[in-house]
Amino acid sequence: MTRLLITGASGLLGLNLALAASSRAGRPNAGYQVTGLVHSHGLVGAPFAVRAVDLYCCDQVTNVLDETRPEIVINCAAVTNLDAVESNPAPAWRLNADLPGWLAKECTHREIRFVHISTDAIFDGLRGGYTEEDVPFPPNVYARSKLAGEAAVFEANPQAIVARVNFYGWSISGQRSLAEWFLTNLAAGRQIKGFTDIFFCPLLANHLAGLLLEMVEQHLAGLYHVVSRDGMSKYAFGQALARQFHLDESLISPASNLEAGLTARRSPNMTLCTDKLAAALGIALPDVASGIAQFYNLYTEGYPQRLRSFDKI
Predict the structure, then answer these.
(1) How high is the pLDDT of residue 30?
(2) What integer is the mean pLDDT of 130-137?
(3) What's the CA angle centered on 115, arms 114 and 117, to 5 degrees?
(4) Fewest C-beta atoms under 10 Å: which of 57, 77, 89, 266?
């Protein structure tokens, strides 16, 4: 069994990743003994070990590293509220920039393989279709903090994996992804707006979790774009979700993000090219349609209720 430590284990990606890794036993060379680190949001009854740690406290983190002796660390912890970060940047710089570099350094000293989760938001979005070779121009404080985190990780450990992502899925609170926001409002019959001028490549968190584990198992290293292989506007994404869940797509009105009163500037086109990862793994990455279909299948199987059962209130 490979010892795997996941930070941010109660978050949207962290929890889905921890569950995916915990259920991977039985695959050749792919069994994991998972420890999930949580901060303010605890978990109960999860099928993996859970440790409450203040990630801002280096001594607590190093103690966990020494006690659990992981062979792999996947850092999913981040401050992600773009507008809040714009007005209060200090926590984001600590968690998105300083912590990843420090954690990568500590893992290097202990010969622990390190994976860091970054974002598609580091590009200015003036054209889209960005490859790993394109130079980022972060448009807001959040993006700048995440780009600084990438640089700090590679400075500390050139053999690390840095994955730029954009994902959605089921979360423990039911309120942590764009897809959940669309569905909650549509199910309540509310009129809502979808941005027609922001394009992205949303990947189901469960698919992302599987790809991250494949990347680890294939011993990849370096920078990769890990998103859906195709893209669409946020408006079109909401409509596709409505159709899949048999909800009224006419409740979604087309709108511009420039009219929404957002504090942080958004990149209009965050679509990324996934050719590098597809070639490295020898597979085609999932498309948006297959992700939405699986998102619906998880719903019919009671997966959201399973996640909520882990909520330590």
Answers:
(1) 62
(2) 98
(3) 145
(4) 57
